[in-house]
Task: structure prediction
Amino acid sequence: MTDTPLKDFADSAEPPAHLRGRVEDTLRARGLRGPRRPSWYQPAAAAAAAALVLAAALGFLAGRMTPAGAAEEPRYLLLLVGDAQTDKPEAELVAEYTRWADSLRRERRLVLAERLADDQLVLPAGSAGSEADARISGFFLVQAPSLDSARALAEAGPHLRYGGQVVVRPIDHR
Result:
């Protein structure tokens, strides 16, 4: 016995048609494979499945972009200026900011929040205002019905309590 026929079989992309049919018939007879379907069935089923997956994905994304139960409200950027001045351990302070962010998320107010790294550039170099004046330590992008509401959200956060400043800026959609 030579290994050439086996090698040829292993290198082929598809098994021979007669062998494939015999295997499928055996699997069907043992109940391991469903009945034969018309040739049009597989492409139609695949297209229907793809359409369902696409519809579900689009529905999910649409739900993620606009918070449920809230019309698209104006957005405001809360810029956290300076660092919190406290003797609390950093982990405890981070946990407090996280709880505040979580409360905004539950109220469907929070769009995005990030703590910024200490490195920064102020451009152009040598411009008016020192780098300390421009030190932004983090930001929260929130949704609120008005500037006063955004101010109330900022005042509820921990940054002001610890000596930091918060600059509230509406997002201009012109």
User: Anything to note?
Assistant: The chain has six helices and four strands. The chain has two domains: 4-65, 75-170. The radius of gyration is 30 Å. The longest strand covers residues 136-143.
